[in-house]
Amino acid sequence: MKKMMKKTVTVLLAVMMLTIGVIGCGSDTDESAEGEKIYKIAFVVPYIGDQSYWDLVDRGRQIVDAYDNVETTLIEAGEDTSKWTSVMTDVCESGYDLIVSGNDTYEYYLYEAAENYPDQLFFNFEFGTAQEYDNVYAVKYNTAELGYVAGLLSCAVTTSDMEKANDDKVIGVIVGMENDAMDDFIGGYCQVANSMGVQVIIGYPESWTDVAKAKEMTLNMINSGADVIWQVAGGAGNGVFEACAEENVYALGVDQDQYEQFIESKPEYANVILTSFVKNAQIGIQTAVDKLIAGEYPGGVIENFGIAQDGVGLIENDYYLETVPEDVRNQVEEALEEVKNGNVEVFSVLNGDSAEWQKIKSEAQEAK
Amino acid sequence: MSWADFVNSFFSANFLYVVIRVSVPLLLASLSAYMASLTGVGNIAVEGIMLMSCLMAVLGSYWTQSAALGLLIALATGIGMALMIYMFSMSLGAQPLLVGIALNTFASSFTVFLLYQFTNSKGSSGTLPSKVLPTVDIPLIKDIPFLGEIVSGHYLLTYVTVILLILFYIMLYKTPMGMQMKACGLNEQAARSVGINVTKMKLLSMLFSGLTAAIGGAYMTMGYASIFSKDMVAGRGWIGIAAQGIAGINYVALLVVTMIFSVFQAITNVFLLYDLPSELINTIPYVGVLLGVIFYSVAATKKHRQV
Amino acid sequence: MCIVSRFKALKEQLSITNEFVFKIVKILISILIALGITFIVLALVSDHPLENFITILTAPVKKLRYFGNVIEMMIPVAFAGLSAALLFKMGVFNLFVEGLYYICGVACAAVAIQQIGGGALHPLLCILAACLLGSVLMGGTGFLKAKYNTNEVVSTLMLNSIVLGVGLFCLKRTGLQDEEFAAIASKVFQDSAKLNVIFGGTRITISFIFLILTAIFVYVLMYRTKLGYSIRITGINSKFAHYSGINVFAMYMIVHLISGCIAGLGVSTELLSLYDRFQWTNLPGLGWDGILMATLADNHPVGILIASFGIAYLKKGAEVVSLTTNVPVEIISIVQAILVLLVSSQRFLVRFREKKLLKEGMKHELG
């Protein structure tokens, strides 16, 4: 026993020494440019790599990181909200010029820190409920309008005589979780379906990762006549693409150009993704950073970026232009104009009455 | 939804086809738990092994650009992990429960870790061009009305699973090896005393356990879906363990329980599309198993008392 | 040789058995190996492995706040471990503590959002609600096991998923949901419900005291009472317990009730100390960690406290490293799993040593 213990410890020490020796003293930290002010910006998110929502924020970060005078730090604080206060405190005490965070689940910690550190500047990249603080600039992307346009495109496709569209006037949407924030995507979606006499099938897999479940649900939808399905379920949304590819119907993406995302690795997915509906989150982030650098940080300002401000929209890539016929595209253009001009009042689940939402939702799901 | 839709959802060839599709990973998980517990070793890490195999199937087929090799890599992973359980619990005396839990947590984090190393994503492997195994349309059978729709057009691994189920049945009930394995589980001392090589039997059973769990994992990412997604096994391994818990060493009961669960799961997926609270609908399969295990134990106790 | 025998005499005087020493030694070796592996993994993943390695080991003690975080992290896990240990010791592999943490949390939240007076009343009511529900539900599984020998692994696994669904339902649709909040979350906990910090500069509240008290309670129960004796006997051989006249049914029921109560206590103190609202949309994983601690510590309360502390320490260190570098946070789960495997597998050495001890003992006897 003693011998074995000695042996083990010796081996361990040897391995450690070797590794230390190999790695050496480690590289020095990068040297910042002389003279010019380098803006240090921290991005506090739960995690990245979901290829949807949080990656949006990360893309915004990468864009500003490419500026010569900006240095960004990505901090993945995890999903456990009890840790966020201490993480935020740490970040506030590290001397960043700007802290970017937010989102309905985590903005509480941003505002809590904003209260405790009034000299620290914050950017709430997407607020759920904005609070007024002089050191916080908060923006929002009009998800309701986004859903409205998605709904319109879906209805237009299902009633058209595009290749994969069938005779049924049924469209589908897979929403990751059932809560007000996510339902905001489908408030306008259902509204427009009602006005066009199209049935909506809504599926909540209650998971952002269960691909198989999303696929099963989508297959069931397709079996009930849906020929265009919108995925709003992050990673689980890949199941939607699987199902649509297998059954040869159309799919719609979210958060990024998912056609581009999959064209190399999974062309069978890409070829069913007509387009993707995105929040141009980088607009907000870029605006905030640009204004910070210009010395006119809009602290205390709360803005809502809708279609009119180019805050949300659909990706008009080549595939979209080729596959979707002109008349359908025109319908979408018209709808975009109507929303921009304010001629259409898009129903927003977040701001609206929940009884009314239930009404719209039930009506949408009725067979037509 | 209209009545026509409702009827169509459940009383149709398509539904039975769906049940089969849903049942494959569950059957494999049950088999995995069954084989391990048959000789008394036990495998709590079915979920973890499936998850690792899922990922290795994707990574393997991506590296080798071959579906077959990807499958082999997944199988090797599963067998390797099962053997680890064997080694840690048999040779080194750790409790299988502990090893299993440790492996499950390990698999959950390690898969994300590996995924991140290769794809810079912690969510899914969508950017990796991995391969899938083909779907099989059985000629002639596929044209039979109703039956054809149910039986033909499944993924390759579905048919492999059916064959495996039959093979295992034959092995367990018609060969000496099967008898020996069962003997080990029932009474190790007695088995040893009649000359059964208990060590070899345990090792073999763990091998089978790892193999079946690995096929289950590979099914998830090489047919059912074609990408890996974090935690995508979503409890199927645990269902297998639960099924084995109910069925004990009764092979047929194991299959029946698993199929019942699969039916429940398929029903749930349909109900999820109705305007009902999805978080409650999602509990239907579990409620089913729970009621099943309660009725079973009540009945068994009553029978016991009668005797 | 002389030194060894004098050392042995000293050990006997202090009634430190060889077994105890071995347990410590084997744990230390396992920790060393696990740390070694951590270092190797760090070397592969990070640019500054030595720096990161040292950070993992020392960060938690660098700031009072960090050390406070370690204690915070340890508390709910240790509670879960204690809850599970009682049942495991009895030979019942009940895994319900994970699900209980969720549903009892919902119960606690339901009371915490109400307008109830100040002082100690409000938190007490919240904790009581959680404990009561925990006892009832765990008691239910105990009843099934005691009366019908229902396979507890199956029933509790299923129940974990079921209570998640039920809990979510209650959270979303029975008035707990904060209408102003877009994500799934309960209304804000009233200030009167929250527990007060007892160590300035940290967020440690009275829950820590509760934990220590509970651990003492479990220890006394298990090792100093007749009930505890029955529990341990049943755990070793349930048939023997039955034949020696122990009222197995009553024992099962009592232990399940206590275990459920501890689980309720664990989650309610956690919520009232560190959270402003109930936001969990998934099982928190604390129950599983607790089960792991219990199994690791062989269901001994003191061992559970130590193991929980150790794991929390490493987790905090890894957290600090992952926040400031690109080392992914998953690394700590990997290390935890390896550590667990090694600690449990060191039993091999114990068996080996026991054989040696036997030989020595025989030598003494024979001459």
Task: Describe this protein's structure.
The complex is a heterotrimer of chains A (368), B (307) and C (367). By secondary structure, chain A is an alpha/beta fold. Chain A folds into 2 domains: 39-141, Rossmann fold (3-Layer(aba) Sandwich), CATH 3.40.50; 143-278 and 312-365, Rossmann fold. Chain A is 45% helix and 17% strand. In chain A, the strands form 2 sheets. A 6-stranded parallel sheet of chain A has the order 2-1-3-4-5-11, with helices on both faces. In chain A, strands 7-6-8-9-10-12 form a 6-stranded mixed sheet, with helices on both faces. In chain A, strand 1, helix 2 and strand 2 (70-76) form a beta-alpha-beta unit. The longest helix of chain A has 22 residues, at 2-23. Chain A is elongated and about 65 Å long. Chain B has 307 residues and is mainly alpha-helical. Chain B has one domain (15-252). In chain B, 75% of the residues lie in helices and 1% in strands. A two-stranded antiparallel ribbon of chain B has the order 1-2. In chain B, helix 2 packs across helix 11 and helix 7 (156-174) packs antiparallel against helix 10. The longest helix of chain B is centred in the last third of the chain and has 27 residues, at 198-224. Chain B is globular, with a radius of gyration of 20 Å. Chain C is mostly helical and 367 residues long. Chain C has a domain at 73-301. Chain C has helices at 2-13, 18-45, 49-62, 64-89, 97-112, 121-148, 152-173, 207-224, 226-236, 238-243, 248-274, 286-296, 301-324, 331-345, 347-366. In chain C, helix 2 (18-45) packs antiparallel against helix 14, helix 4 runs antiparallel to helix 11 (248-274) and helix 4 packs across helix 12 (286-296). Chain C is globular and about 80 Å long. Chains in contact: A-B, A-C, B-C.
Total count of helical runs of at least 4 residues of chain B: 14
Give the overall shape of chain C: globular
Portion in beta strands of chain B: under 5%
**Count of separate DSSP helical elements of chain C:** 15
Q: Kindly report the oligomeric state of this protein.
A: heterotrimer
Q: What is the string of helix and strand elements of chain B?
A: HHHHHEHEHHHHHHHH
Query: Most extensive interface, residues per chain?
Result: B-C, 43 and 45 residues
How much helix is in the residues of chain B? Answer: over 70%
**Helical fraction of chain C:** over 70%
Order of helices and strands of chain C: HHHHHHHHHHHHHHH
Shape of chain B: globular
What's the total count of β strands of chain C? 0
Rg of chain C, rounded, reads 23 Å
